[in-house]
Structure formats: C-alpha cells, structure tokens
C-alpha cells in the first residue's frame, strides 16, 4: 500500500469507509430497530437464531422428522414400468395415439414432435401386488416389494416442466428460474444443525452401473444456497474412497498452529466485514471453521470398518465399493445418524428415450436392494420414525414410444402430467398408495399432488411452516413453495 499514490490511497480509504445505502440498512439492523423489535417479540425473536430446542422461531411447528434423505433419480424413471400398473394397455400394443394426443392438447418435446406415429408401448414387465395395501410393483424392483408396507407410494405427482433442467430446478429448488435456494438449504436455514462438526446439508453423487445409460448433466444450482446465507449450501462429498480431499494438515503444521492461523484469519476477515459489510466474508470464515472441524469428523465418518457384515449384506454386495449407490445409501445412514439434517443422493442415468428395457433394468439393480437396506437399517436402529426418506425423479415418461417400437424394445419421452414417487418414515403413513392416473397413465384422475405440495409436506413433517418460512430477497418474501398456494398432503400423514 505504501507504493500507492497518496491521492489514490485517499480514494481507496474513502470507498472502504463509505456507508452505502445497503450498508446503512444492514448496520441499522443492529441498532435501535432491532432493540425495539426485540422488546415487542421477546423470546420468540431470539428463537430464530437459537440452538435447537432452546426456543421456537416464528416459522417452527411441531416436527415429525428430525432429518431427511432424498434419493434423486435424475432423468425420470418410468412410472409405467415400475409402479403404475396398466394391464389393459397390452392388447393395444402399437396402437397409434396421434389423434388422441391432439385431443389432449399435450405439449410434445422436440424429440418426438416430428414422429409420423405415436405407437402405444405397454410395459413388458410383470407386476404383482405386495403388502397389506396391495401395491402393484414391477418385477424390476423385487426388494421394493418386500418393503411395500414401509412405503407410501404417490402415483399422482404433477409438475410444470417438460425438460430436465427446469424440471430438476423446480423439484429441488421450488422454481424453474436460476438463483433460488435448494430444498436442503431451506431446511438448514430453518432448522439449523444437529452436529456442529459436519455440514447440515450433504450431497452424495452415486455412480450408475449401466455403460449405455443416457446421463443427464446436473449443476450445483440443485444444492446451492441461492439468496440464503452461504453456509446453508449443500456440501458435495466425492464418490471415491476419500469423500473430502486434503483433510490432513500439511507436514510441519501441527493442529495448534492450524488453529492459531484460523484465529488470525478470522480477525482479518472480521475487520474486512466491519469495513465492507459483505456477507460473503462471513460465509468464508464459517467455511474455514467447518473445514477445520471436518478434519476430525470426516475420517471417522468414512471409516466403515465398524459396520458389521450383516449391514453390508443388507445393503447388497456393492455397498463395500465406494461411490456405488449402495455405498452412498449406507453413507447416508451414517450421516443421518451423526445429525446431518438433509442428505441428498443423486443417481443419474434414468433418461430412457430408447432401449428402455436394457437400461432401466440396470438402473433398478443399482438402487433396489440398497433402498430396502436403507429403510430396514433405519428401522432397526429406531431412526425411521424421525427420518423422512423420499425417492423419485423430476417427471414421468410417456405411454407412447419414442423411436422404433418392437415386442422387446422401446423408449419413452418426457411426461409432466403424472409420475410416481415414494416416501417413508418421518410421520408418513406406511403401506398405502395415494392418487390414481387414467387408463393411459397420462392424466391424474384422483388426488393430484403438485411438486409444490410435496415441498409443503416435506417442510411440514420437518417442523417448518410452509408459508411462514421465508427470506426477504429483491423486495420479495421468497419461499420454497413459491407464491402459488401449496397444500400439505394430509391423507398420507400418519
């Protein structure tokens, strides 16, 4: 700084010390305004920032779940081939639906809009009923059949998007626009952390085993904090043997020296924040502190040597291989067990526009037993009652074939009007099927559930009021559920 011209230095000092309009209102928030508000609201105001259990913030309600695990199947699994059984379609094999589609007023993607015909493609898979509720489940998911009494299968999901990127943004951030906060970030913001040594929101990327699968690209927007404070963003763990790199201190730097270095850096950052009021400075400081604590917590988390052979057998043979879906499911249980609020497992490759029988069967093998293992493991440990598990993609698949249809091979295009997910634990009623589609698995005819309703239900079960949980940004009260009214799906609640 000594080499800078005196006039330039004066200009820099003037800029750093200037009180902009935004900084004025930010700094005013620590003065008389907050004192007056505190006098009016008393302890209720303090609850918003208080540790869990100390007081209730304005948006809190009685929770049924402490944590959630979301199994995100990127690409959209076919409801027709997995859960939405339509045996009456088989005699109509290859029937051209072009005229029928025109009458429906359906939006078509650019991938099928030019087809001369839209041949009806019934599922080639056998279905059977399982559990007390008699849920129809495909032969592709035999382990799901074994846990039918643990699941609430929702066959009447609906979305507004017909392509992957906006559909994924809608279901994981509540909006098709960029820049919104993700579901896990909202839960972290609204509920805080149960374990200060691990992030409150962790993302796992599981490998798929099909070498021919159509893998959709996804971005960090799906687990980003958006306009929320940066510490609420999801922390993505690697899918190898080391979920987090560079955990060990460099040679010659003892733990005490690392602590001293971070303390000095915190003082510098605090001084910069006092001058500039930039919230990103605080976020960096919090990230440094979390990284320091993770140096001790993550090695224990990643060490699976304490897991029994019976546990590995429960999740399946792939559970011993880091990065597989089975290994990720086991890691999700370990994270939930240690107090991570929201764990999201992304498994890609579910976009079967062609060769669906080949690729869908491979995808199902990846997740079927591991999902069963996760639910049973949580149940055995007494965790399922307060752990909410969600399974599903971003939309459904069409009843008509994309491309060439044969007796043994077909593909399906995107379909937003209906798709299937399942939920388990966390106060959700087990062993039931909610909603119904028409004879073509094309439109919902009973108990529709929009993506916004799913969000409202998840927030409600986690103890957050869907309409009160908000964050002021760009002059608006931003919410995960948006501005369109969303309803909690009461019939599926235990």
Annotated CATH architecture of the largest domain: 3-Layer(aba) Sandwich
For the termini, the CA-CA separation is: 65 Å
> What's the main sheet like?
9 strands, mixed
The structure class reads alpha/beta
What is the CATH topology descriptor of the largest domain? Alkaline Phosphatase, subunit A
CATH class of the largest domain: Alpha Beta
Instruction: Output the CATH homologous superfamily of the largest domain.
Output: Alkaline Phosphatase, subunit A
State mean pLDDT (0 to 100 scale).
Answer: 87
Count of strand segments: 17
Number of helices: 15
Rg (CA only) = 25 Å
Low-confidence stretches: 27-55
Percent range for β-strand residues = 15-25%
Helical content (DSSP H or I, runs of 4+): 25-40%
Number of domains: 2
Shape descriptor: globular
